[in-house]
Amino acid sequence: MTTQQSYREATVRGASPVELIIRLYEQTIEDLRQAAIALDQNDIGRRSDRIKHALLILGHLQNSLDFTRGGKVAENLNNFYTYLRRNLLSVQFHPSKSGIMQQITDVLAVREAWIEVERKERMPDATPGDPASALGAGKDSASARVDWSV
């Protein structure tokens, strides 16, 4: 195991569920960034591998949704993940750097909402934040093409 792998493993072990979700979003963004670079370099194998890994992460996130407890937010996230997966499959078969960049923009917007949820969780004197309000309240939510209102 490399030093980087050891560091990652230790970081994940101490992470809250929200921090883990943020890390999965960050890995998805990195995979898409690498796919865009591979597209520029005409490296079909690497592009395909990175998109495939991003799809696996999105599938994991989507399968982890709790519709009973999550309500409308879980439904909106499910729609968002379906949208991303559909578009990534399209980019996989019809390579488009602008398509990949749009996916990065969309994932970044929702990642910011999760970061806000994490901030609210860490505030000791605040009442626990409602993830629905953080996910529904961003000016960037429109770029995700999903209705985030609750």
Description:
The protein is 76% helix and 0% strand.
Secondary structure layout plus pairing:
Blueprint: H1 3-13, H2 17-40, H3 44-63, H4 67-93, H5 97-122, H6 131-136
Helix pairs in contact: 2-3, 2-5, 3-4, 4-5
CATH architecture: Up-down Bundle
Give me the count of strands: 0
Question: Helix fraction?
Answer: over 70%
- Biggest sheet details: none
Q: What is the overall shape?
A: globular
* Total count of helical runs of at least 4 residues: 6
CATH class: Mainly Alpha
Strand-residue proportion: under 5%
- Supply the helix-strand structural class: mainly alpha
Number of domains: 1
The CA-CA distance between the termini, in Å, is: 44 Å
The assembly state of the depicted protein chains is single chain
Mean pLDDT across residues = 83
Low-confidence stretches: 132-150
Indicate the CATH topology. Answer: Four Helix Bundle (Hemerythrin (Met), subunit A)
Short description:
The chain has 150 residues and is an all-alpha fold. It has 6 helices and no strands.
What would the keywords be for this entry?
150 residues, mainly alpha, Four Helix Bundle (Hemerythrin (Met), subunit A), 76% helix, 0% strand, globular, disordered C terminus
